[in-house]
Here is the input.
Amino acid sequence: MAPKQFDVIILGSGLAGSILATILAKHGARVLVIDKNAHPRFAIGEAMTPDTDLMMSILSYQYEVPEIAHLSSFENICNHISPSACGLKRSFNFVYHREGQAQNLQETNKLGVHPSSHLFRQDIDLYMANVAVQYGVQLLENTRVIDLSIDRHGVTIATDNNEQFIASYLVDGSGYNSLLTQKFQLREIPTRLKTHSRSIFTHMVGVKRYDDCVPTSQPQDELRWYQGTLHHIFDGGWMWVIPFNNHDRSANPVCSIGLNLDSRRFPKTDTSPEQEFQAFLARFPSIATQFEDAKPVRNWVSTGRLQYSSHRCMGDRFYLLPHAAGFIDPLYSFGLVNSCITIVPLAARLLKAIANKDFSANHFTALEELQQKLLNYNDDLVHCSYIAFSNYNLWNAWRRIWILGSSMRQAKAGLRKRLKISAGKGVELASMEDESNLDYLTPSYEGLGDDFFRQATTLVEQVEAGLRDPNEAAQQVMSLIQSIDFLPNNFYGLGDASQRDLDVASKYGIAEQKRFLFWIKSSSKSEVKRYFDYDIDDLLAAAQQTAAGRS
Here is the structure.
């Protein structure tokens, strides 16, 4: 029997693989997706962020696939998929704990955002895989690839059911056990990554709302602990609490729980993950209260060290999506957003390659550089976070570096999208320009000068090396933030260490955004260029349109 032919074969039908497959099929590509498992299935990577929402929206608009936009907000998921397929994420909540002590509510932080989501991945992934099939993607589930070969003519795949498939290009959207990394020995051994962490996780029912476990919040506090992603922070690690039952429309009683530990300080042992979790709760009484009635509804999973990396993300006729190429840690939920960031330009390059029958690796070089830069940035950010967990003041300062970076990238990417919408440019722009300028997708401190993030990172890493007092480092990080002269009126309160709770979706936060746009609109091009590695004419035009209320 002759092998079946496709333009692109994608390994893995998770969200990233299904989204890319859908986009390619929408624009005429013949796409095969192969997965060793079947939907519905358990998956982690459950917390959306404003960055991820924005990238989903950009993908949907740019490639004219409305079903991707159905994932871009809490309301869209409720209305188009299911209210039980998501939880509400109104905030990032961080609660600092000291072993053996009751929690001090003066050592907590909240970051309010426009309503985002928690993804019940077994439903969400099934939805997106079905969308891909509806657009013409061929999906093979419960199918293992037993051999693959790539030469200058194309890709050949052999499966365990004695079928053979050929394609012009192969995308690996699987994960750690990537077949491509094994075939071409792409893994870095040892990894270059600095973060050292491991995880145990499960789904539970009966997890209390943290609001019911602590003294009543002030009446004017609009940010509730249970209406966001809750992070319990402690010296040596953190825990996620991601509820899917935190809004009135949900009939899903499940809560996702994960404990993440510095694997050098808390190495994995023969203790079962459930016993390890109970032993952890015994050390932190204020966390234990939240789990007095909790019961797991699936088996616990215990990992070794989470971090892995690859010295290459692509080669002749193949590309590795972020989770196949490398991974850091679930903190800040960068996994899904980095996948979406990669897909934005990757889809354009693949469509162009198919049209021109030219799959030369040099067309993907800039994208590989971006993906490696994203991984390195994530590693620096998370590595310094684990260091900062040892001291509340240092943590309170360092988290503002993360907030600033996310805000900057959202400003650049969001303004660019508004400009494209106002110009009526969708997939035509993506196909013609091939997303050649990737500056708006790069890690977010480029516009603050090359030294800004490096200086902040060095300050924190000196704490780990015993060269700097953590409180001194916290003050120096705050001084760096305060030195950014374009932050109008102390942008979101980032420069004020006493302002523990920030809300970018409040009236105050929206007013700060408008003042930021006014700064862009009223400043000289040279002044703006100091902070944004960006097409300044486009940026100013988008800011003027936004300030005028036209987009």
About this structure: DSSP finds 18 helices and 17 strands in the chain. Residues 410-547 form one domain.
